[in-house]
DNA sequence: TGGGGTTAT
DNA sequence: ATAACCC
């Protein structure tokens, strides 16, 4: 019954969206607390990708160029954030913490999570109903200052949701030292939109009656999560730019321009409707490492960069414990027009004899993979001709668990219950299980 | 515009 | 393999 609610019914869901405040900057401030009272930016190449609130007060914006940022604020402290390792690690700690509340946690980037708390809410509701609901009170803001009606069970559910969201934020702060926003609503779209209404480090619940106020507060269709750059351009060519334009557009016109799937989805989004489920992310589907640069124009340079990316990745893969079946090389060629659009990639299966070597570490897995990657490179670039590459990226995907960690083996159960949920810890734990307990 | 990720076609 | 989306 409760299972069916969380999985399928659109009526009673309670979703919370958790959005960490300026995540990379927070991680850097935890790493070096002296940065806390100072304006801080995190730099990748010549961009300030994010900054703390001290810096925002002084006019620094996300994705501002380093030149503009220093001009605006000469005392701005910059730390390099090109290596995502520390952010990735803390990001997964946040997801794991949220998974203690509900297994239905979906990651969105490194700093956002959706949690479906429908079941937890139903359980608490059952407990509360025994001694009356009169003392139930909201945590944080109510969107649009809407008044609460305790006779309305959806109001009660969302209010219980606001209490759970507050617990999540408290736990994140106590255990990880992180602050963030939360939005509570009846679907993913609305929870995400409402989480941003009071920032930073605050939370907001949306009651159903204010749904239209929220969605119509967006000043352009581009602000709707799910309507991206391309779709926006095509809609603008149809003369559609406001939320109201999209709501009232005839479906036939949209279907003709975008196809039935996209048309139906975005028109529902424009009405605040989103029936997509919170899909548990689980372990990552792929591992990639990339580097961008002004110019790379010789095979020797390419090989050197690929070796660097690869050694980094092999470390991460080894740590995860699963083995990839597919390897991909992505490049970006220099061009004056379209500078950050033109990526191309080639991928191929990893030969089984190389996959085997991943676990053991005794054989050199780097050089055969570099050879494969250079072949993929030559499929895209004629190295006899001059070339100008501005980005290289290596990606491992199609990850499979170790043979020992299949269902039915002890490894399977150990991985599922271990807080670090990786095949690596599974192997370590298996090895430490005394023989008489192993079966 | 970085350095990542995901799903759909 | 690419194209779209997300951060």
Automatic annotation (TrEMBL):
Compartments where found: Nucleus
The UmuC domain, residue ranges: 15-228
Catalytic activity reported: DNA(n) + a 2'-deoxyribonucleoside 5'-triphosphate = DNA(n+1) + diphosphate
Function of the molecule: Error-prone DNA polymerase specifically involved in DNA repair. Plays an important role in translesion synthesis, where the normal high-fidelity DNA polymerases cannot proceed and DNA synthesis stalls. Favors Hoogsteen base-pairing in the active site. Inserts the correct base with high-fidelity opposite an adenosine template. Exhibits low fidelity and efficiency opposite a thymidine template, where it will preferentially insert guanosine. May play a role in hypermutation of immunoglobulin genes. Forms a Schiff base with 5'-deoxyribose phosphate at abasic sites, but may not have lyase activity.
Single GO MF descriptor: damaged DNA binding
EC number: 2.7.7.7
Enzyme class, UniProt record, top EC level: transferase
Entry protein name: DNA polymerase iota
Domain of life according to the entry: Eukaryota
SUBUNIT field: Interacts with POLH. Interacts with REV1. Interacts with ubiquitin.
A single GO BP: DNA repair
Cofactor names: Mg(2+); Mn(2+)
GO cellular-component term (any): nucleus
Keywords: DNA damage, DNA repair, DNA replication, DNA synthesis, DNA-binding, DNA-directed DNA polymerase, Magnesium, Manganese, Metal-binding, Mutator protein, Nucleotidyltransferase, Nucleus, Schiff base, Transferase, Ubl conjugation
Gene that specifies this protein: POLI
């Amino acid at each position: 019954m409760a299972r069916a609610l969380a999985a399928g019914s659109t009526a009673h869901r309670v979703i919370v969206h958790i959005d960490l405040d300026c995540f990379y900057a927070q991680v850097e401030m935890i790493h070096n607390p002296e940065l806390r009272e100072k304006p801080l930016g995190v730099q990748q190449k010549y961009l300030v990708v994010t900054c703390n609130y001290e810096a925002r007060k002084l006019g620094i914006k996300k994705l501002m160029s380093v030149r503009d940022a220093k001009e605006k604020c000469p005392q701005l402290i910059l730390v390099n954030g090109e290596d995502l390792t520390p952010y990735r690690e803390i990001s997964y700690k946040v997801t794991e913490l949220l998974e203690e509340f509900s297994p239905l946690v979906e990651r969105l980037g490194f700093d956002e999570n959706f949690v479906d708390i429908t079941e937890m809410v139903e359980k608490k509701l059952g407990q509360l109903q025994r001694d009356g609901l009169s003392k139930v009170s909201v945590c944080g803001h109510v969107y649009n200052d809407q008044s609460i009606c305790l006779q309305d069970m959806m109001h009660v559910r969302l209010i219980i949701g606001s209490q759970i969201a507050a617990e999540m934020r408290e736990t994140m702060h106590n255990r990880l030292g992180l602050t963030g926003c939360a939005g509570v609503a009846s679907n993913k779209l609305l929870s995400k939109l409402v989480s941003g209404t009071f920032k930073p480090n605050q939370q907001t619940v949306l009651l159903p009656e204010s749904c239209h106020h929220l969605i119509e507060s967006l000043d352009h269709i581009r602000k709707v999560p799910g309507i991206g750059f391309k779709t926006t351009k095509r809609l603008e060519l149809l003369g559609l730019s406001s939320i109201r334009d999209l709501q009232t557009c005839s479906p036939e016109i949209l279907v003709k321009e975008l196809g039935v799937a996209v048309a139906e989805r975005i028109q529902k989004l424009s009405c605040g409707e989103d029936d997509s489920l919170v899909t548990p992310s689980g372990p990552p589907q792929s591992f990639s490492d990339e580097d961008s640069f002004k110019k790379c124009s010789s095979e020797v340079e390419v090989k050197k960069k690929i070796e660097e990316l690869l050694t980094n990745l092999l470390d991460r893969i080894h740590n995860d414990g699963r083995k990839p079946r597919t390897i991909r090389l992505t490049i970006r060629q220099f061009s004056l027009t379209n500078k950050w659009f033109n990526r191309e990639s080639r991928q191929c299966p990893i030969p089984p004899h190389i996959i085997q070597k991943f676990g053991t570490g005794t054989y050199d897995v780097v050089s055969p993979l570099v050879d494969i990657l250079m072949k993929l490179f030559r499929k895209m670039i004629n190295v006899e001709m001059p070339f100008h590459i501005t980005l290289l990226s290596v990606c491992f995907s199609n990850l499979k668990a170790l043979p020992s960690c299949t269902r039915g083996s002890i490894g399977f159960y150990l991985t599922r219950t271990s807080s670090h949920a990786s095949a690596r810890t599974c192997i370590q734990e298996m090895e430490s299980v005394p023989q008489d307990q192993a079966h």
